[in-house]
Amino acid sequence: MFRPTAFLLAISMVFLGLLSAVSAAAIPQENDLIALGQTFQTLREIQGHFDGAAFNPVVDAPNGEKHQVMQKLYEAYGKPGVDSAEIVATMGPSDEIPDEILAQLRRRAPRVSPPANFKYIVYKWRGFHDYIWFRVNMKNDKVQGSEFYAAYE
Predict the structure, then answer these.
(1) What is the chain's mean pLDDT, rounded?
(2) Which residues constitute the signal peptide according to the record (predicted)?
């Protein structure tokens, strides 16, 4: 006996599987940081919900293409000791950091003796709702700390 609901469900599952396979194929592999960086720089130009445009699953959705690319880049560059010049060469210049975000980052910075000067490199995923930050020691330009911050709202 033919069941239209079951048939439509099966077709939908196949379509979604093919769609996710095509999307995943477009994302460069973790070891190709140059391609990941180029993909990220292209994606960061696309306007989404957090930029005042309509919701765009490519840049706004959890596990969307931009999110996946940023996760891979964060895995590669989020470790202490990474040269900040590598990050900027791959991901492009840091997004401008609003004063209130910079103040939050500075409050969370470790207190060290003697005091160290830090700068921050920040890349937005969904505006300053979710973003990656790198705390860079200005004495040696190496990453000292980092986080893929998510508001979870």
Answers:
(1) 84
(2) 1-24
